[in-house]
Write a structure and sequence with these properties.
Distance between the termini: 52 Å
CATH architecture: 3-Layer(aba) Sandwich
Strand content: 5-15%
Number of helices: 10
Radius of gyration: 21 Å
Order of helices and strands: HHHEEHEHEHEHHHEEH
CATH class: Alpha Beta
Largest sheet: 7 strands, mixed
Strand order of the largest sheet: 1-7-6-2-5-3-4
Structural class: alpha/beta
Number of domains: 1
Number of strands: 7
CATH topology: Glycerol-3-phosphate (1)-acyltransferase
């Protein structure tokens, strides 16, 4: 039986005028920045080279200015080529009239975009990737719960699950990322949902998140980051303060988590109601890079990134809300324990 996507209105809810107005800014800006950076690249790389030489005097700091500049060019080029491919897919789909063909054409672009960017990160920063348990990802349908630690791990689900296993994920993404035109055009074309965390009605947001789990087939899943944001020490402290005030019964459990953010149960619990298996993804090696500025230290260079997957059958997941919240915290505690063991002094 073929998979049935949720109704388009469940994920593509913005007024068309607002979408067009935003893209008339972000799309031309991407091509313009790429053109400017390409033309100025000889001078820009000479300046970056000089900065790295100056920073390395008296220290052994990795050369980051050249690396970051090179990645900026790759990112803009990937965005531009991805947008070009999306446009070509729109034309081939009868200028968007053939919805099924339009959606189908977007999947390989998404996988290519993530593969290209993560490949650039690996080569430029010398990352070594170790993956365990990937065979647990298929078959679908599954609800994938990913740890969120950095600006880099956003690429892991598409690289490891979609590109390597063929699992097509319906993403739950924060609406602020619509400012990235590739995510805007491609993400809106596919059955993802961009959560309005600032002004959205919580019940409406949860209903639309839940709709993503409808009609999933054997090659599909829903992706959610239960932490809701990238881990930093300050964000962890703020989250604990909020829990102490609003959910004191969870504060004690949350305070045990040292290397991950306390999971937010709302979206996860509504997806668990679908009755699908759950795929837990933890990773270590990308912590400490929540912002682009964090990369400047050079600590990311030469790191080993360890990623592990574990599948939990739906029958093993508790049924009551309170038990499911405890279960979710148990899963995040297990991830935290692995990270703590990896970083403990020998």
């Amino acid at each position: 039986m073929a998979a049935v996507a949720p109704p388009e209105s469940s994920w593509n809810d913005e007024p068309r005028r607002k979408v067009v107005r935003r893209r008339l800014t972000t799309v031309p800006r991407t091509f313009a920045l790429l053109a400017v950076l390409t033309v100025l690249s000889p001078v820009a790389f000479l300046v970056a080279f000089a900065i790295d030489i100056a920073r390395s005097v008296g220290s052994r700091r990795p050369w980051m200015a050249v690396r970051l500049l090179a990645f900026a060019w790759v990112f803009l080029a990937a965005e531009a080529w991805g947008l070009t491919r999306f446009f070509a897919g729109w034309v081939r789909a009868g200028f968007g009239s053939d919805r099924e063909r339009l959606v189908e054409s977007a999947w390989p672009v998404q996988a290519w975009w993530a593969r290209t960017l993560f490949g650039a990160v690996q080569r430029l920063f010398g990352l070594d990737l170790e993956v365990a348990g990937l065979e647990a990802a298929t078959p679908g349908p599954v609800i994938a719960l990913f740890r969120h630690a950095s600006i880099v791990d956003n690429l892991l689900p598409a690289v490891l699950l979609t590109d390597r296993t063929g699992l097509r994920l319906r993403w739950i993404i924060k609406r602020e990322l619509l400012s990235v035109p590739g995510l805007d055009v491609g993400g809106k074309r596919l059955p993802n949902y961009f959560v309005d965390r600032k002004s959205g009605d919580p019940r409406t947001e949860l209903r639309r998140i839940r709709a993503l789990a409808d009609g999933l087939g054997p090659h599909e899943g829903v992706l959610i980051y239960p932490e809701g944001t990238r881990f930093t020490r300050s964000r962890r402290a703020a989250a604990l303060d909020r829990l102490r005030a609003s959910r004191p019964e969870l504060w004690e459990r949350a305070s045990r988590l040292r290397n991950v953010m306390p999971p937010r149960p709302g979206g996860v619990l509504t997806l668990l109601d679908s009755g699908h298996d759950v795929l837990i993804c933890g990773h270590d090696g990308l912590g400490g890079f929540a912002r682009i500025s964090d990369l400047w230290s050079g600590a990311i260079v030469g790191r080993t990134v360890r990623v592990w997957f574990r599948r939990i059958a739906s029958a093993e997941i508790p049924r009551s809300r309170a038990e499911r919240i405890r279960w979710l915290y148990d899963q995040w505690q297990a991830i935290d324990d692995v990270i703590a063991a990896d970083t403990a002094p020998a």
